[in-house]
Structure formats: C-alpha cells, structure tokens
Amino acid sequence: MRIFDPHIHMTSRTTDDYEAMHAAGVRALVEPAFWLGQPRTNVGSFTDYFDALVGWERFRAAQFGIAHHCTIALNPKEANDPRCAEVLDVLPRYLAKDGVVAVGEVGFDSMTAAEEKAFVRQLELAVEFELPAMVHTPHRDKEQGTRRTLELVADSGLTPGMVVVDHLNEVTVDQVDEAGCWMGFSIYPDTKMDEHRMVAILRRRVELGRGLGRVLVNSAADWGRSDPLKTARTGAAMLEAGFTDDDVDRVLWRNPIEFFGQSGRLLLDDDATSDAITDATATFEGNSVLRGSRD
Amino acid sequence: MTDIRPLADPDTVRAALDDAARQRHDALTAEVAADPSRLGRTFPAAARQTGRGPLPGLDGVLLEDAVRVGLVRAAAQGLDADTLLAELRELYRYGDSDEKRAVLHALAGAPAELDGSDLLHDALRTNDTRLVAAAMGPHSDRLDDDAWRQGVLKCLFTGVPVAAVTGLATRADRELAEMVQRYRREREAAGRDVPPDVQVVLDACSASPRHSDRKGS
Ligand SMILES: [Zn+2]
C-alpha cells in the first residue's frame, strides 16, 4: 500500500512517527500551515514557522524517505487577531515556492467578519498564484460553516476542482460534492470521523454511481489526540469491506497527486506521478494538469 | 560588474534540459541579465521551470543548483559586490532549503571582496546536512579559524563527507586534531563505531603546514 497523506502536521510529530508512517507505506504528504495550539502574536512567528515548513521539516521527512510538501496561509483562528493581519502581506513570497502545493488552511473557525475577510483575500491569492486552496471547515456548526464556505468559493472565481473542503462528515459531504469541490475527510481516533464510517461513505458513493474520485482521506495528525497511521488503517478497512487494492491506491495515492498536481509544484519523481496522470487526464478529458511547468 | 564563477559549465547545464526547458532557462537568464532586480522573482521558480536532479557528467552537482547559480551570475554582471551581497542575503533569508543551498553555492564562486560569512554562520547553525556541506565549500575561507574548525567537527557529527570541506589540507591544525581526537575518544568510550572521515581529518592535520600552529598564534 502506497500512501500520500494529504493533511498532516508533522512539525508536531516525532521521528518515531516518520518511521512508523514509512513502514505503513506513506511516501508523500502535505503539511498545511495551521494553528500551533498557542496563539502567535506577531508576523515574525509566522515567517519562522513557514520557513520551517519549506526548510527543516522538508529535510527531516526526506531522512525517512517521505516527500514533504506544504500549504501556506493565515489560518482562520489567528485571522481574528489584528496583530497577525500583516501575515497576509508576506504570503506571496512563500506561495511562489516549489513544494508549496496549495493556499491553506483557510476557511472558518468561529464565522467572524475577520475570518471571512482573510478567507476571501486568500482565495484571491490562490487565483493569482494558480494554486489549489485547502479549506478547513469549523468543528462547531459545521453545516452552516460549510454552506458559507461554498458561497465564498463560488464567488472567488476559483474553479471548484481547485478546492478541497476538509474535515467533512456524513452531513456535509453532499453539498461539497454538488459544488464540484474535492471532499476531504480527516480520520481521528475519536468520534469526529473514523475509518469505518469513512468506508461507509465511500461505499455509499460507489452505490450512487459517484465513484471514488474527488475524495481525499487524511489523518490530520497534529499536537492533539490523533494518529498518523489513520490513512493506512482506512486502507485496511477498505480492503476488509471488499474494496480492491486498486481502489485503495486510487483514494490514498492517486487522488492526492491528482489534486495537488494541479499546483505544478509536487516534489515527486515522474514514476510516482505517471499513473495518477492517467486518472487526471481521464477526469479532465485529455487536459493533462500534472505535466510541465506553469509560467 | 561582479563575476560569479558558474557551478557548472553553462553549456553542460543547457544540454541537460529538454527544448522547452532550455528555452525557459534562456529566457529567465536574459530577463535577469536585463534587469537584475528580477532575480528575487525568478530564483524561487527556477527549478520547476527548468529541471531538477543530478546533473549528468558532474558528480554531486544538482541541475537546480547550477541553474540558480547561473541566474545569480547573470544578475551579478549588472551589480556591484555590495548590492549583489544584499540581494543574496534577501534570497537566502526568504529561501526554502533548496534556494538557501543555491545561494551558498553562488557564494562559493564569489570574488574575494565579497564576504557572505554571515550566511555561512546561519547555515552551520542548522542541522540540514545539505546546507552544512554547501557552507563548508570555497567561501568558508572567510570563516575565522574557530568557526571553521567547528564546521569541520559538525561535518563529522552529522555525516557530511569531509571531501566537501574546502582547504582541509592547508587549514587543518593541531587545535582541530585535538578536537577530533576528543570526539573519537567519546565515540570509543560509548562503544560506537568511529566514522572513517575522523582518520581523514586527523591525517590532514598531521600533514598540514599548520600542524605546529597553536590556537591564537
Ligand atoms: Zn489541520
């Protein structure tokens, strides 16, 4: 089983985790810029953090045979602190870099005006830098937050296929699907979403003829109670439920490459991306989105 | 106005690119030569617009490093040494680890009047072996003896091959030998193997013209 974890905060994890992830099949990942638990109070704290995401953490992952990518953004929680607003001005420097495969995590935490302003501005940056956007949905009042999120995405001019709306559940998946966005699921060791419910969602999609496309499964592991092997456990649960090895490969490897490949910034060799290109060209009707550079 | 030595022969670099990538490479180079202030915009994107990976025919040289040093070289033609150094500091400050390494390689080909040792110090504070290796290249002649010896020791500690260290044969001295012997004793006391490069450095120390030098003399 080869795995691309499209959402995991390795900064908060140990080298034991890297070792265990590699043993479980993880060969690539995306680390979205997010909240560190302790609120930051100035722009410098963010730039040092962003530098670590494109520097030290990339090196650390490489030591364990894992290709590290990241997304860069001012997250919704800290968007509420006026001392952090200037982070928006330094983002362009980072959004120009190799290995920065999306703008994110953006979105809503408490649905405030400041959050919406930062969200809208960062969707504009995604359009400007031709990058996908990774959108975090609030853990409280998720349904309403997801609805407003999809309105703002529609207004932004960003193609729905360039947006993943993350942390979905049974209640929010369909509206994201209907909007044409990618559906992200974070599998936690508690009640928010587990691998068996994930398999039930996948099975329902197949039964409804919607297939396994536009679905991303991640561990969202961070400094909180979480499990960096939840992607592998979801793969195992899929096999137990009768999905094929190819289905698992599609969801856990080719789908993330297809989505983040739209950035033109993945740091994977051609072999790793070639079979995903086949899926991508099928999806986008011959318009290969993974190849070549974007000028 | 400032000459930067290329990391690899420009023809070798161009030959390693396919037609489309070579065209982009030439366009980027021309853009920066015409307006050196474009360096900050072109440098980060250079690898994905041209290519990355080992440069055929040149052991240990990466294509993306050679391309980025080439861009610095093109910009440097229109910049005096101070302005170029300021530009390199900006590229380094906001660079990812690949960009930082390319800046260190550009410094390796810089003329004598240009001193970017502050960037070497930053690189040597990291534990990124690719940065440590690049920092101990030709520009490390700007480091004072204490910093240089610590750099050599860090190479032994982090597994950077000391073949990457410039000036080992001439600069190794008794002080460095004593530091490395203490390191070896520590490894042996712990029952750990001693990396072969330890002996390489000790041999360089005893053969060096500075072997009899004492610290501060
Ligand atoms: Zn997250």
Automatic annotation (TrEMBL), chain A:
One MF term in the entry's GO annotations: metal ion binding
Q: Does the keyword Metal-binding apply?
A: yes
Record's Pfam families? TatD_DNase (PF01026)
Q: Which UniProt keywords apply?
A: Hydrolase, Metal-binding
The stretch of residues making up the signal peptide is none
Family designation:
Belongs to the metallo-dependent hydrolases superfamily.
* Name assigned to this protein: Hydrolase TatD
